[in-house]
Every structure is written in structure tokens, then in C-alpha cells.
Amino acid sequence: MIFRMTKNAAGLVSASCADDRKAANRYCDWFVDIVDCGGTACFLLTNSFSLFSLLVPADGLDSEESFFGAAVRGIRAYFEHAGLSPLFDEFIGADCGSSVVTGTNSRGVLAAMRGMKMIISGHVLPDDAPGWRASLLAVADGLNKSLFRCRDIGGDEYIFAEEIIGSDKMREPVPEPEGANLPAGAKGRKPRSPASGQSRPACCLYAELEGYKPKIWRRILVPADFTMTKLAYTLMSVFKAGGSHLYSFEIPVIRNAVKRMQAEGRSKEEIASMKFRLRDIQIECSPDAGGGPFGTGFPSMSSMGKDSETLAARKTKLCEVFNGGENPEFYFTYDFGDDWRFRINVVDAGLKPAARGGKTPFVTEGQGYGIIEDCGGPGGLEGLRDAFQRKSGGEYEEARDWLGCDDLDLSAFDIDAANAAIKGDMRFFESGYREMENSAW
Predict the structure, then answer these.
(1) Both ends of the chain: CA-CA distance in Å?
(2) At residue 197, what are phi and psi to the nearest 5 degrees?
């Protein structure tokens, strides 16, 4: 049996992760995470292929051996409860004596488990209530009859676990884990960095300032593995922000999923089922999620409501947000007073930027000057535009004195100057935001 544990789960039982390996069959390959069931910690066990899931109470399980025993007993009991005892006896029972813990290896399964944890958290299962363990079976029944998305399955990505667990697909050979055929001693090594002259895979982004006309926009190539912090610095640079205010990203996961499912011709029932299990994501300029920006107790700037999940920009990558096409649109907000808000669309992904204009980040097209710090947001920018077009009156005189110039063309965009400034701006922003993070509010 292979149990692919998250860091939290492995820490609870003091597990030491072995090298990745091939399971005897798909029935013997499980992901494991921790979930709160009404104040009681439980292990969530999810089959890596079918997403068939069950809950095992974590009380008293403080070692690998105790976990292995409880997990096998839990899987057996739930298979019996579900009327699947023959499957357990034929495909799992013989492999129970050689259980190992290894790391997680599928974003798709982990994403599905995150949806499951949201469902579970909605059930109140106090540990002092009679029969609470039996109610865990009912929760698992609900999970296995629910619709989930898992890119690893292939074909129809939206699945009901109870329909997959007994299928012929479960009997198919398990693919070799990535890196299994490397030379001895090579497993576990990090991939080599690209050779000199080669570029990292890139995403092409279209970014447009909201609330201002004529449009101010940029088309940018950025590395797909950029953290959202570095993406924020790039956006601030190409739109001429000063880097003196907080920022956040908003990922409308639910809206993106609804659009995708509608385009696929999904039924209203399927869409409603999926919407119930998803959460929008807020990514803030803090080193640790929660507690507001910078993790200092400063109030969160989230505008997405209490049902959104908050992540840290330094710990989240663009490729994780895009997630293979699941979130092609998101938003960037800079300065929560002026409220500069930009719509970001992932136009293309997996590009080789060396063939598309050079190193990244890199602006390929654009229109409009950018923003002017502390002018009052898009409305204030329109006021400055109008004042400089009139070149007379009190507003013009104030704007001229403030900005120190007689003319201002907000329609102009110098792409060469924008690209020349990115590298230096990013270093400047990094230093400034690090200083803010290290200071006490």
C-alpha cells in the first residue's frame, strides 16, 4: 500500500517519506490529508485514481505503524459498508503488509481533496455525540456520490467516485512514477536549470486597467513559474506604479468554473453541484496566509467574501493559479485607497519566449501611459487627462505644480522604456516590500 501524505498528515504520525514507487494496482494508491470533523481530527484517505474517499479518526495514531493499521482497517470497513468486500480481498488485502509513506504527486487529486474538505467542514460531528463514528460513514457516502474534477482521470474530467471504484479502469496497470527510470542515486534530485541560452516556459498575459477610457493595457510574457509576488512587481513596473502600497490578486474560481462547464454543455445540476464545492481565492502580499498583509494582524484587504481562501503571494506561483487552464482570468488590485484594479487574462501558456522576443518578463505590446500614483484612481486619472488637455484653469495649474510638467500625454506608451525599466523596478520593489514586511505595524 502506498499512502501519499501531505506534510501535515506526515507530521502527525512522524512519518519518513520513502522514494516514489509504483503501486501494486490502482486500489493500493492513496492520498492522505488531515481534516477537522467537528473538533475531531481525522485522516481523509482518497484513492489516487477514483477519488473514492473515507475518513479515519486520528486519535491515538502517533506513528507510521499505528497509522498503517488504522488505515487498512478503515479501508476494509468502508469497502464492507459500501458492499465492495470482494474488491478489497482481491486487490488490497494481499498488499497491506508492505505499506509505505511517500509524497503527494498529483495537483489534480489534491485539488479534489480540498473540495472534499470543504464539504466535510459543513458537517457538525462532535466527538461526544452518540454514534459520531458511524456518521463519518455517512459523510464518506456523500463524498463518493459527489461530482469532482480530476485531470488525472482522463476522458471525462468530472467524476463520481462511486462509479469509478469498481470499474475496469481500476484494474489497469499503474504508470511508473516520474523519475522511476533514472540511474541509481539520481532519484530525488531537483531538475537541472535550463542551460545557458534556454528560456523557462512562459505565459502570455493580457492586463488591462479597469474603469478608464481609452483603454490602458499591456501584453506581457512572464515565466510560468513566477511567484505572484514577482508578477505583481512586473505589473507595477509596466503600469508605472510606485510600489508604495499594498496589493492583492483575486482568483474568481467559481465564475471561471461555471464558464468552463457551460462551454462544455454541462447540466445545471452538475454546475450547481460544482459551485457548492469551490471557493474563490485571494492572494495577498504577505509572507504567511491569514492575518492580513505581512501576517501582522493588519486587516485583510480581501473583497471576495468570507467564503474565499487566502494565500500568500510569495508562496503561490502563476502556474498554480492558472492550473492548466482552470483560471484563465483573474484580477490584480494595487493601492486599496485609489483602488487600481487590472483584469488579467492568460492568453497563452507553455510558450518558449526565446522564439517570441527574448528574456522574460517582457512587454510585447501595449497602449496608454499607465497610472499616476496617489491621483485618486481611474477617476483621478481622467481628471488629470482632461486638465492637461485644456491646459488652463485651476485644476491644470495644480496638476502642473504637483507633477512638475507642462504637458502629459496619457495615450503615449514607450515599449522600449517599459522593458528597460522592469529589471531595476523589480529589485526596487523587492527591497521596499521586504522592508515593509519586516517592520511592525
Answers:
(1) 49
(2) 95, -15
Can you name the residues that pair with 342 across neighbouring β-strands?
209, 332
Residue where the block lists cell 494508491? 29
Q: pTM for this structure? A: 0.59
Determine the Cα–Cα distance for residues 283 and 308; give it in Å rounded to an integer.
10
Strand pairing report for 147-149 and 247-251? unpaired
* 225 contacts 350 by C-beta, under 8 angstroms: no
Return the C-alpha cell found at 324. 492548466
> How does 75-103 read in b/e, with b if 16+ C-beta sit within 10 Å?
bbebbeebebeebbeebbbebbeebbbbe
CB 305 within 8 A of CB 218: no
Handedness of CA 400, 405, 407, 410 (dihedral sign): negative
Residue type at position 271: I
Name the helix (H) or strand (E) containing 4: strand 2-5
Give, for all 441 residues of the chain, the pLDDT tens digit. 899 998 889 888 888 877 777 788 889 999 999 987 767 789 999 998 889 999 999 988 989 999 999 999 999 999 999 999 999 998 888 777 678 898 887 877 887 888 788 777 655 454 445 555 667 888 898 888 887 776 555 545 677 888 889 888 888 777 665 444 333 333 444 444 444 334 578 889 999 999 999 999 999 999 988 999 999 999 999 999 998 899 999 999 999 989 988 888 888 888 887 777 778 899 998 643 333 333 333 334 444 444 567 888 998 999 888 887 888 999 999 999 999 999 999 988 877 655 444 567 989 999 999 999 999 999 999 999 999 999 889 999 998 888 888 899 999 999 999 999 999 999 999 988 887 776 543
